Amino acid sequence: MAKTPGGCYDLSQFQKDDSQVADIFSKIVSGGKFGYKTVIEKRKDEKRCLNCHAELQGIEKFCPECGTKTEWQKEAEKPIVLLTSEELEKKFKSGEEPESEILAYLRDRLKMPDFAAFEIINKWRREMRPAAEETKIDLNQFKG
């Protein structure tokens, strides 16, 4: 069986047409009752200029009508701000950012391997725990 570029099995050969998908979906949604027809809308997301509302293709840097920078060009020009390890540690220990966000930042933004990111988080956890007091043993209890 052929695989898609994502590595999944291509099951499109078993799907006859879109109406079959709609029929199956309507049975699932209606709890198996007959007579319900599901309408599956396929919306086309139109890209428009924020200034003059002219329709855009989505590849322009500037609107061809008014010359305004497009939304995606503004996003592409935003500087990427990277936090230092001290700033991340401070956010973690103060609870300003949830652990999951900091872990995602380490892995996704800084491209840190999972094991290294988890090791840093665990180190910060250990540092936050109060130091365990030494257990004092009274040696006099063993004297006879």
Number of strands: 2
Note the run of SSEs as H and E. Answer: HEEHHHH
* Total domain count: 3
Instruction: Provide mean pLDDT, rounded.
Output: 80
Radius of gyration: 29 Å
Which outline best applies?
flat
Strand content bin: under 5%
Estimate the helix proportion, in percent.
25-40%
C-alpha termini separation: 82 Å
Biggest pleated-sheet summary: 2 strands, antiparallel
Structural write-up:
- It is a single chain.
- The chain folds into three domains: 1-42, no CATH class; 47-77, no CATH class; 85-128, no CATH class.
- The radius of gyration is 29 Å and the shape is flat.
- Strands 1-2 form a two-stranded antiparallel ribbon.
- Helix 4 packs antiparallel against helix 5 (114-128).
- The chain has five helices and two strands.
- By secondary structure, it is an all-alpha fold.
